[in-house]
């Protein structure tokens, strides 16, 4: 069983809430659901729509052909009717308006009428819809239930869904929030910027029960500087932004590199440059993340491909930041952040959530002690000895220096970490290979979903997902490319940045590229069409 449902209307009509509600019911009924969200940068008006793909087998992406259109306005029908599959159904104003007039309720109740119509089609018991409404809307559920019931009675049963094992339905954002809490997050700081803002909201709602602080400073520069102060004091700290906000943070990002302060930076990409496409997706910040900041210092850049990876990769980000005293960039994008994925269960990383801080630092404590692996034992102020953090070049105690010999020693000391980092990351599955075949698709991040859904329809292709971009897993990537007949890059960018990184790191040029840079993510159908070319 596989169905694709589009829910559309103007901003403010509730299409996003409705699609999540529908997806949640299907997943609780045991089906796999992927929920894609498309909307303009408007609070009211415009055309918003969500696409739900529902199946009894795992799905990781959406399609642009629909079996059902649930229309909250006529524009939704006019825009998407041409993409309705043969035998597809449209439920819209002609179905909802008489019921709203009968109930004498607000127009937003049309969402619930459509919910009733849809689930009557699939033969889902009305009491299940009522229970979901009570859970979601609480005290406001009575009118919601009435309008769902009216829609249900209006509809007719055409198919009968079997009850399967219930599943979890979470967004990429929620995955990162779950991962951050599991890693022992203390403080999350962010200034709102789409598409990173949902993580600010997710963690703010959970700060009391998880004993974390969520705070919005006055701008992005304040965010990262406050975060470095918190990190210096021993807090596990994470900040969130998108490309434009991270651009403002880069001076202080370099401070993290010099002062060796652990920090996790969540950067969720959108269309750029400048303000770009504020509510659409892109992967154009890859090289920016790898090279951000002035000067040379080690950092980690990793990019999850779905909600499950968002959990474990976020845990890895905290672990590596704390253990190696470095800044770590968790690179996401709008498509991953705001899409909902189905998980059979939520799996967390077995990595320890320790703080890597000395309990009893010696009186002669050196903040930047030169060690075999370049990692100086960390201490926090107030434990006894003086603990220093310095933006200037410094000696082992943290005192400012300018002599050549010490400068070389300290720069070498920081870069000693790189070899140990690379070895550790090799144990964290920095690349993954899916499918079998002599031809290879190469990509990173949220493109994973469309590629996985397309793969069964592609003859003689396998897929290499690169999850760590810095330090780059050169050996693993080179191994897969060298044993492939054709190699094709898939990326939501105009230039194919990952191909440039691969050429720089391992000297292999990928000439074949499928690039998409219209602000919209790949679909399996689009990818298959481009591969045929």
Question: What would the keywords be for this entry?
Answer:
single chain, 533 residues, alpha/beta, Pyruvate-ferredoxin Oxidoreductase, domain 3, Rossmann fold, seven-stranded mixed sheet, five-stranded mixed sheet, 19 helices, globular
Task: Summarize the structure in words.
This protein folds into four domains: 2-166, Pyruvate-ferredoxin Oxidoreductase, domain 3; 170-343, Thiamin diphosphate (ThDP)-binding fold, Pyr/PP domains (Rossmann fold), CATH 3.40.50.970; 357-428, no CATH class; 430-532, 3-Layer(aba) Sandwich (Rossmann fold), CATH 3.40.50. 38% of the residues lie in helices and 20% in strands. The chain has helices at residues 15-28, 74-80, 93-103, 110-121, 126-137, 141-154, 172-182, 197-204, 220-232, 243-259, 286-291, 307-324, 334-338, 404-415, 417-425, 448-454, 474-482, 497-506, 524-532; strands at 2-11, 32-38, 45-55, 66-71, 84-91, 168-171, 187-190, 213-215, 237-241, 263-269, 300-302, 327-333, 340-343, 431-435, 439-443, 461-466, 468-470, 487-491, 512-515. It has a seven-stranded mixed beta sheet, sandwiched between helices. A five-stranded mixed beta sheet has the order 2-3-1-4-5, with helices on both faces. It has a five-stranded mixed beta sheet with strand order 14-16-15-18-19, sandwiched between helices. Helix 5 (126-137) runs antiparallel to helix 6 (141-154), helix 7 packs across helix 8 and helix 16 packs across helix 19. It is globular.
């Amino acid at each position: 069983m596989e169905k694709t449902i589009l829910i559309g209307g103007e901003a403010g009509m509730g299409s996003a809430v409705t699609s999540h509600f529908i997806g949640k019911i299907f997943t609780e009924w045991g089906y796999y659901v992927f929920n894609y969200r498309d909307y303009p940068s408007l609070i009211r008006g415009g055309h918003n729509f969500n696409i739900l793909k529902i199946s009894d087998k795992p799905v990781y992406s959406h399609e642009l052909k629909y079996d059902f259109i649930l229309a909250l306005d006529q524009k939704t029908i006019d825009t998407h009717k041409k993409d309705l599959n043969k035998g597809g159904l449209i439920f819209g104003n002609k179905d909802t308006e008489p019921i709203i007039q009968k109930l004498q309720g607000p127009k937003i109740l049309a969402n619930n009428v459509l919910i009733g119509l849809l689930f009557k089609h699939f033969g889902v018991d009305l009491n299940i819809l009522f229970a979901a409404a009570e859970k979601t809307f609480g005290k406001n559920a009575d009118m919601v239930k009435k309008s769902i019931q009216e829609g249900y009675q209006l509809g007719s049963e055409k198919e009968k869904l079997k009850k399967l094992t219930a599943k979890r339905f979470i967004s990429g954002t929620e995955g990162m929030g779950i991962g951050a809490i599991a890693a022992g997050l203390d403080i999350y700081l962010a200034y709102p910027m789409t598409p990173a803002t949902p993580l600010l909201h997710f963690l703010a709602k959970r700060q009391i029960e998880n004993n974390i602080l969520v705070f919005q400073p006055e701008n992005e520069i304040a965010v990262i500087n406050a975060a470095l102060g918190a990190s210096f004091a021993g807090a596990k700290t994470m900040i969130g932004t998108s490309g434009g906000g991270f651009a403002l943070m880069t001076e202080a990002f370099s401070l993290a590199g010099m002062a060796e302060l652990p920090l996790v930076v969540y950067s969720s990409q959108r269309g750029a440059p400048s303000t770009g496409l504020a509510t659409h997706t892109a992967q154009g910040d890859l090289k920016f993340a790898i090279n951000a900041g002035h000067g040379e210092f080690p950092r980690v850049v990793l990019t999850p491909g779905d909600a499950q990876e968002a959990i474990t990769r976020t845990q890895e980000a905290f672990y590596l930041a704390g253990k190696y005293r470095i800044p770590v960039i968790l690179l996401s994008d709008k498509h991953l952040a705001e899409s909902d994925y189905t998980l059979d269960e939520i799996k967390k990383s077995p990595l320890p959530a320790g703080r890597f801080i000395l309990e009893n630092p010696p009186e002669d404590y050196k903040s930047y002690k030169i060690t075999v692996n370049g990692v100086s034992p960390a201490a926090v102020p107030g434990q006894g000895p003086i603990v220093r953090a310095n933006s200037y070049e410094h000696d082992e105690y943290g005192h400012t220096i300018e002599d050549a010999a010490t400068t070389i020693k300290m720069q070498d000391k920081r870069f000693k970490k790189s070899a140990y980092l690379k070895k550790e990351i090799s144990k964290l599955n920095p690349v993954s290979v899916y499918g079998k075949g002599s031809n290879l698709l190469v990509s990173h991040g949220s493109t994973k979903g469309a590629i996985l859904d397309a793969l069964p329809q592609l003859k003689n292709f396998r897929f290499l997902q690169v999850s760590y971009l810095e330090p780059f897993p050169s050996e693993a990537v080179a191994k897969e490319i060298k044993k492939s007949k054709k190699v094709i890059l898939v990326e939501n960018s105009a230039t194919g940045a990952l191909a440039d990184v691969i050429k720089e790191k391992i000297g292999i040029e990928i000439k074949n590229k499928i690039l998409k840079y219209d602000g919209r993510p790949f679909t399996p159908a689009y990818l298959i069409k481009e591969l045929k070319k």
